[in-house]
Amino acid sequence: MSPLSENTIKTDGMTVVAADGAAVADFVALLKPRVVSLVVFTGVVGLWLAPGGVHPVLAAIAVLCIALGAGAAGAINMWYERDIDARMRRTMDRPLPAGRMEPGEALGFGVVLAVGSVALMGLALNWFAAGLLALSIGFYVFVYTIWLKRRTPQNIVIGGAAGAFPPIIGWAAVTGDIGLLPVLLFLIVFMWTPPHFWALALYRSDDYERAGVPMLPVVAGAGATKRHILLYSLVLVPVSLLPTILGVAGAVYGVGAALLGAVFLYHAMRVARDEGERSAKRMFAYSILYLFGVFAMLIVDRITGLL
Fold first, then answer.
1. Domain around 89
2. I need a surface site. Which of 93, 140, 233, 257 has the fewest CB within 10 A?
3. Is 11 a domain residue?
4. Cα–Cα distance for residue pair 180/184, rounded to 1 Å
5. CA 46: distance to chain centroid?
C-alpha cells in the first residue's frame, strides 16, 4: 500500500488526512455565508429599487441566483487558495486545509453552482442579468483570485469590482438594462472595499506575510496602509452622497449616508493615529455595518418618498 492513502491530501508540501466524507456544514462553509449575506443584501437593494417591479417568485429566484453565484465564486476561491489558507490562522480550519474535503469536491461544487446560477438567472429572468452574474463570478475567480491575489498589493483595489456587481445584477434582473443608480451603488461598494479589507489586513498582516500574499501592509508597511485607508475613506464619503446629489435618491438617504460616512471617517482617522490593532479591528467591524446601513437607507428613503 502507498504511504499516502486515498484519503490523504497534499497541499503545497503539507499533508493532511481527509475525513471519510465532507459534511453538509463543510459545503456551506465553502460558500462563505457571512460574506455572501452582505453581497446578497446589496443585490436585493438593487432589485428592490429597480423601476417596473417583478413577480415575487422571480425576485426570489434572482436573489437565489446572486447568492449561489457569490457562493460559487467563494468555493472556487477556496479550492485555488487552499495552500494559502493552510498557512493562515484565520483560514486554516476551512474544509480544504483542515482535510475535511478533497479539492475536487470543492471545485466541482463551485463550478456546478456557478453554471447553474447563471443558467437559472437567464432562463427565469433575462440573459443580460445572467451575463453580468457570469462576469462577476469570472472576475472574482480569474482576475482577483488567480491573477491579482498573489501578484500585487493592489489586488483588493482592482479585484473589489467583483463584489460591487450585485446591485447592478439585481437591477438588471428587473429591467434588463443598467441605470445611473446601480452604477453609483457599484462605485460605493468599489470604493468601500479597499479600506474595509486593508483594516483587516492591518491586524492580520502576520498571516498574510506567512502565506506569501502581498497585501499592502506586508509590502508597504502599516503606515502606508493607514494613509491609503484614510485616502479611500475621504473619497468614499462624497461618492456615497452622489445618489442624492444627482437626484436619484432623496434627502433622507443623503442625511443617513452623511452621518454613516462621518463615523467611517472617524474610524479611519483613529486608525491613522493608532499604533495598535484595536482601531483597525473596530474599523473593520464598523465598515460592515456601514455598508449595510448605507444600502438600508436607500430603502428607507424610497419608502418615505412613497408615503
1. 21-178
2. 93
3. no
4. 6
5. 16
Cα gap 284→268, rounded to integer Å? 10
**Same structural domain, 90 and 185:** no
From first to last of its 307 residues, what are the pLDDT tens digits of the chain? 333 333 444 444 444 444 456 788 889 999 888 889 999 999 999 999 999 889 999 999 999 999 999 999 999 999 999 999 999 888 899 999 999 999 999 999 999 999 999 999 999 999 999 999 999 999 999 999 999 988 998 888 888 888 999 999 999 999 999 999 999 999 999 999 999 999 999 999 888 898 889 999 999 999 999 999 999 999 999 999 999 999 999 999 999 999 999 999 999 999 999 888 899 999 999 999 999 999 999 999 999 876 4
Beta bridge partners of residue 8, listed in sequence order: 17
Query: Which residue is it, cell 443598467?
Result: 178
Residue 16: inside a domain, yes or no?
no
* Residues 99 and 112 both lie in one domain: yes
